[in-house]
Each structure stands twice: as C-alpha cells, then as structure tokens.
Task: structure prediction
Amino acid sequence: MTLNIPLTGDTLPPQAKRLLEAVCELVEAGEGAIAVEPSPGPAPAHAHPAGELTPLHAGPEVRLLLASRQVLLAGELMPLTRLEFDLLQYLADHPRRVFSRTQLLTAVWGYEHTGERTVDVHVRRLRVKMGDVPLITTVYGVGYRLADDAQIVLDPQS
Result:
C-alpha cells in the first residue's frame, strides 16, 4: 500500500501529523520500517557501519571527536557549547530521522520543562557557527533532522 502525503506549505494537515507520529512510534518500537522514495533533490547521504556519512555531493567534512567532545570543520576546531555538541551528535547518530522539538528536548536536554523554542535557538546557533555547511534540515510542521548532504564523521576514539 502506498500513501502520499503532500508536504507543501508551511504546516502539515493534522491527519498527516498524527500519521507521521504513529509511524515513527512503530519504527521506534521495531515494528516496521519507513521506505522513502527518492526525490529529485540533492542525492542522499549513505550511512556506513563506522558511523560515517558519505554524501554524493562532497562538501567540507565535519568530524565529531566523541572522546574529546570537539568538532573539526574542514580540519579546523569549531567551538561548540555542550548542548550544541550533544544536539549535533544526536542528529548524526540518527541520520534521516525527523525529531520533533519535544523529542529533542527529552533526548538531548533530558527534560521537557523548557520552551520548545530552545531547540530552535540552538539549531540557529549551530547553523551560524557552521556557516555554509548544511547540517540540519528543518522539516516544517514536524521538527529537525540531519541534512541529507551533511558529511559527518563520528570518531569515537578521538
């Protein structure tokens, strides 16, 4: 069965939003998988077992040094706050997965008691620090995910 949900405009219809949330819950519970048909946009990144994403369109490499909690952009050290690093790592750990602001607050911040706009502020700051490097994609009406063409390497040893 194929179900097409139009994703144009600024907001999703309430029925589409509920359907996407239900599908995400099923996938999280290990009871299904999501198949996404390729769109005529940029080529998607491909995950490798080592936690590496290799895009078809090469751009500056972002290397997350997990042991030292540092980020290198094209070989240069990028100063990130603890939460900026955690947010970027969480999205890189789950490529192609869309997270709502509430899900990110729970997973990265560890609580939901602050405003959801906190996530927006941290995403904006990450985007400013990374310049023209596309790392985070906004899924309007839903939340955020790692960009398809983000070239991120997770280095657990450094």
Q: What stands out?
A: The helical segments are 14-28, 82-93, 101-109, 117-130. Confidence is low (pLDDT under 50) at residues 36-57.
